Amino acid sequence: MVAIIRYEILKTFLKWRTYIGFLAVLVVIPLVQIALKLSGNALTRSVTQGLGQEFIFIGNLLNGYFVTMFIMNFLWVHVPFLITLGAGDQLAGEATGGTFRLLLIRPVSRTRIVFAKYFTTLLYTFALVAFLGVLSVALGLILFGTGDLIVPGQTFTLIPKDEVLWRLAVAYALSIWGMFCVASLAFLFSSLVENAIGPIIGAMAVIIVFYVVSTVPVDLFESIKPYLFTTYLNLWQKMLVEPIPWSDIATSVAALAGFSACFYLATWYIFVKKDILS
User: Fold this and answer.
1) Whole-number pLDDT of residue 42
2) Which residue from 9, 16, 166, 272 puts its CA 20 to 30 A from 46's CA?
3) pLDDT at residue 121 above 80?
4) What's the alpha-carbon Rg for the chain, to the nearest Å?
5) How many CB atoms lie within 10 A of CB 160?
6) How far apart are CA 217 and CA 275, in angstroms?
7) CA–CA distances in Å: residue 244 to residues 7, 159, 275
């Protein structure tokens, strides 16, 4: 099993298209942060304008932590899209390249093959989101320095500088957990089609539709929301409120684990029963 996983990892990370997501992050994050640096405090002024007459803000509000929190909003659509680029290619890419039969002539069960590819998918997801987090924090601290973190919302939360870094670290860890579910969905779609474009379009279509249902305040959707994985993808935001709702985070973690397991088991069943013709 270890040899199979190593083979799949090497095969995935030796493909140039695997690094499209990393390249996009490497280009976009510096551009966003440089643009924020040049715009001065316009972002923080727009965020705190409703509090200007009631509070006096002292210190560096536009700091690296605030910019990192701002960039984390990419986790709603942009990062899932980049994840589907890699996850959707795992099985569909073999079908497109006509290498499935060559892959299956080895004395290895289909169960082990699909697990190795799924493990590689999760590793790719972890690497991409971790790269986003490290780059965002490191570049943000270099350009903007440190300071307390003000978190906008229905009620503003001010997180002391001494607590921000570990909270952001846990928030990114939770976001990786959420993106595992996104990757699992794209991996499922990858088992259904023979073109790597299909899983990307299919997974993103499902995510966008589910986001709409999860966020639109309509009574009809309220009973549906607990059964949509997108309802729980905001678990990383819960680390940036006071007090931290650990019970809600645990519920979201468990729910996402259940969705990911269901997506993986469905993929396994489809792949094991699939008639490979090419």
Assistant:
1) 61
2) 166
3) yes
4) 21
5) 9
6) 44
7) 41, 11, 49
Asked if the structure places residue 278 within a domain, the reply is no
Q: What residue type is assigned to position 53 of the chain?
A: Q
Instruction: Note down the domain range covering 78.
Output: 2-273
Instruction: Enter the tokens of residue 162.
Output: 């001494």
* pTM across the whole model: 0.88
In a domain, 255, yes or no: yes
Q: Which residues 6+ apart lie within 8 Å of 162 measured at CB?
A: none
Average pLDDT value for residue range 11-21: 87
Token pair listed for 252: 């979201």
Report d(CA 29, CA 233) in Å as an integer.
Answer: 21
> Residue 125 and residue 181: Cα distance in Å, rounded?
10
Structure tokens at 51: 């509090």
Give a yes or no: residue 25 inside a domain: yes
Number of domains making up the chain: 1
pLDDT of residue 49: 55
Contact 242, 167 (CB under 8 A): no
For 196-249, the pLDDT digits (tens) are 788 889 999 999 999 888 877 777 778 888 899 999 999 999 999 888 999 999
